[in-house]
Structures are given as C-alpha cells and as structure tokens.
Amino acid sequence: MAQKKMWGGRFAQDTAKSVEDYTRSVDFDRRLYAEDILGSKAHARMLARQGIIAGHEAEALVRGLDQVRAEIESGAFKWRPELEDVHMNIEARLTEIVGPVGGKLHTARSRNDQVALDMRLHVAARLDDWARGLKALVAVLVELSKGREETVMPGLTHLQPAQPVSLAHHLLAYAWMLKRDCERVGQALVRVRVSPLGAAALAGTTFDLDPESAARELGFAGVFKNSLDAVSDRDFVIEAVFCACLAMSHLSRLCEEIVLWANPCFGFVRLPDAFATGSSIMPQKRNPDVCELMRGRTARVYGGLMALLALVKGLPLAYNRDLQEDKEPFFATDDILAPSLAIMVEMLPGLEFFPRAMARAAEQGYLNATELADYLAARGLPFREAHHAAGRAVALAEGRGQGLADLGLDELKAICPLVEGDVFEVLSLSAALRRRTSPGGTGPDSAARQARELLDWLGRDG
Length: 462
Ligand code: ARG
Known about the structure:
Ribonucleotide Reductase Protein R1, domain 1; mainly alpha
C-alpha cells in the first residue's frame, strides 16, 4: 500500500522516483513558506470562527504553524523532497508537532486555492518592495539633478547632435519613467490583493466559509467572485512581471547611457572605483560591468514574461499542474529587478560628471541651428523657410570647419536679411537652454519645477 503520500489513499503502488523528481516543486516553492504559514493561520482562525473546527484546535494549529516557521527560519527544518511541495512539507511537520488535529487544517481548502493565495501574498509583498526601490531611485535622480539645471549637454536624436539640454533635464526624464513604473506597480497591486482562499479545489465547498474575514486578516481588500477563476488564473503574476519588464527597460536605457557617457570618446561621467571593473589584459580599462549586466539581465526578465504568457494561453479551467511553472519566472524576475534597483541607488550618487566635456561636446554638431531657425521664424519668416536659411548657414560654417557663431553678421545677413546683431545672443548654448521655457522643456526653471513636483509626489506617497 502506498502510504507515503498525503493523497495516497487510492493508490496501490508508490510513485516512481522519476515522477517524484519530475513533479517536485519544493526546491523553489519553499520561498513561499512565510506566506503559506500566514495563509494557513488565517484559514484555521476562519474555520474556528465559523464553528467548523473548535477554538482550541485553531489555537493549536496556529501555535504549531508558528513553530514550523521558527524552525524554517533557524535552519532546523528538514525539507523532505518526497513531500513534493512547500505546502505538504509544512503540513506534515505541523502534524508531527500538533498531532492528528494537524489534519484538520486542510478542511474546506485545496492546494489549489492555497497556492494561489501564497503567490498573491508573495507577489504583493514583492511589489511593495519594488515600489520602495523605485521611489528610492526617483529620489536619487532628483537629488542628482539639483544644481545641474544649467549644465549644458548635447541632446541627441538618432544618437546624433540635436539641441542642447541640461543634465538635470536628462536625469529627470528617467525619474518620470521610474515614477510611472512605481504607479504601475501600485495599480497592479490592487488586482493582486484579492483573496482566492475559499475557492477550494475549483468549485467552492460544502462548508459555510467566510472568505471575507480571512481576506481581511491577510490585509487583502477583496475576495474572489468565481472559484474557477480564483484557482486558475495567474494574470496577477503576469502583470507583475510586465511591470518589472518596463522598469527594467528604463533601467537598461539608463545603463546604456552611462556606458556611452563613461567611454572616453564622450567623457561625460566617471564611475566610482567601487562600481567599475578592470580587465585582466588591458591595464587601462574601467569597465561598466554593472550597467552591462543590468542591460543584459533585462532580456531574462522579458523572457519570463513570454514564458508566463505562453504558460496560460491553452489552459482549460480550472487548475492545471502547468501553473506550478508560474513561480520560477516570477522569482527570477524578482531576483533581477530588486537588486538592480538597489545597486542603482548605491551607484548613481557616486557618478562624477564632467560638465566641461559635456559643454565641449555640445559645441560640436550645430546644436544651435534650431535657435537660428527659431530666431528667423520669430521675426516673421515662415518656419520652413527659416529652417532652410539656417541649413544654409550650417553648410557655410561646416565647409570652413567653424561654428555658427563664428560666421560674420554680414554673412548671416546675406543668407537672410532678417538677421540683426542680436542673433549672436541666441546662438549661445546656455542661452538656448535658458530660453526653452515652454512647459516641460529643458529650461532651468522647468527642471527645478520638475524636481519639486517629484519631491511632492515622493512626500505624498513615500
Ligand atoms: N505545487 C503546486 C503548484 O505550484 C501546488 C498545487 C498542487 N495542486 C494540485 N492539484 N496538484 O501549483
């Protein structure tokens, strides 16, 4: 008789070793132990409130579960691979501790609603942590922007010189992206914090449960409306990983810029020694490996999203064992995003910026050509014609290896008679920056305003 398994009643033979190995999840789902215990305690108390088990039985279960938790955290707990998953490992130990009453814990519950609850609790806790990490990074970027509202650097489009922007404005662009990531996480949380406990295997149960009260105890705002849906969807995991994908895409873009800026061809930034790595052959190297790995690991997070989407697309209602595969992509995502946020928060304040190199680079590539076109347009020339005239001025200066401001007033007048002596004021890059006062533009006041608004948000939300 097969007695080893909790579900072994109807089996005459033991499970094949190969099947145990193939189906086991305890190696990775033990990460859910705290949530599993939390959920079980809430379930036990709810059963007692409903009169389904006695009050003293619930107390024994809760005490036993607390002991299991302590054993796991002290390292004394013996994980038994043959017990398949985190749920059965914990229940088996609980029963050793409290005796036969341990067997009452699973009344009116299935591993199907249990695992869905564990994942929801876990994802919610991790989303909270991501939100904190994102906020910390926004705060760092705001701080970095301060005093750099007039630091001119080349703004690029197509990676080609376009118009001058301030370093503050550039850094704050990332702060806004990360703020949205944080808000997205908060919005996802609303859908994660819905308790599936009480859905049982798939159809609800014959016992008179009160899922609301268990959900409240767990800090969840709501309860499932349909038991089939509750045990079988993992949209909340997918949405969480999607949030991570976007956050990683923003981090990856920032990393890419730091990699470029740290290259001596740009020379805009120097990584702190503690965050740069050397080469075993080239003595001069200071490699931005942290940024490269963050950029590279973004790919793995995207891969997790694809895996999760593909996982659910063909599943009939309700629970299918395939759903066990939701965990590793989520854990892998978390193992990438959380430390990426933390190391960025640590690394960014140590960046050394080189405003002179930025200013020098901004002098290349006719970043003030739009200024000349705007100048002419402001004097009544249709912008298309102004653009053309400015283009001719660029061609003239470029032919001589000069900047626009090196052209003579008479030469500029010859290209367009609307030009006056005041043209040289608008051609300076810092003037170009200061004059970009349009809302959300790169002007120094705008950067300061953005920083204030972000700080307000951090204060409200933090
Ligand atoms: N390890 C399983 C999972 O993660 C737990 C639920 C098992 N349910 C079942 N009906 N076999 O999905």
